[in-house]
C-alpha cells in the first residue's frame, strides 16, 4: 500500500504549548505596541507581562521575547506571518 502524502506540515512541536517568539527591530516608540497588538489579533488573551525586552548595546535595536500559548501550527505560522509583514519588524525567530 502506498503511503499517502501528508496534508499537514510536520513539526516537532507538540501543541498546545507555550512558545517563545523573539521579535527584533529598530528601537521605536511604537515597537512594543505593534508587536503586542499583532499577537493579540491571533491570541486575544495574550498577556503583555509575558514579554521580555532587551535593547542592543548601542540602543539602536530592541528585541522582544514573547511567550505565547499556541494551540496549532497554523496558528503559530499565522503569528509569524503577521509579525514579519510589519515594516517595524526586522527579524522574527
Quick recap:
The chain has about 90 residues and is α+β, with helices and mostly antiparallel strands. It is built from 2 helices and 4 strands, in the order βαββαβ.
How would you characterize the overall build of this protein?
By secondary structure, this protein is an alpha+beta fold. The chain has one domain (17-92): Alpha-Beta Plaits (2-Layer Sandwich), CATH 3.30.70. It has two helices and four strands, in the order βαββαβ. The chain has helices at residues 31-42, 73-85, and strands at 17-26, 51-55, 61-70, 89-92. The protein has a four-stranded antiparallel β-sheet with strand order 2-3-1-4, with helices on one face. Strand 2 (51-55) and strand 3 form a beta hairpin. Helix 1 (31-42) runs antiparallel to helix 2 (73-85). The termini are far apart. The relative contact order is 0.30. Mean pLDDT is 91; it is low at 1-7.
Write out key terms for the chains shown:
93 residues, disordered N terminus, Alpha-Beta Plaits, 4 strands, 2 helices, alpha+beta, 31% strand, elongated, four-stranded antiparallel sheet
Map the helices and strands.
Blueprint: E1 17-26, H1 31-42, E2 51-55, E3 61-70, H2 73-85, E4 89-92
Antiparallel strand pairs: 1-3, 1-4, 2-3
From the alpha carbons, calculate the radius of gyration and give it in angstroms.
15 Å
Report strand order across the widest sheet.
2-3-1-4
Question: Any low-confidence stretches, pLDDT <50, length ≥5?
Answer: 1-7
Helix-strand string: EHEEHE
Q: What is the 3D form?
A: elongated
- Assign the CATH superfamily: ACT domain
Helix fraction? 25-40%
Number of helices: 2
Mean pLDDT: 91
Derived from helix and strand composition plus strand pairing, the structural class reads: alpha+beta
* CATH topology assignment: Alpha-Beta Plaits
CATH class: Alpha Beta
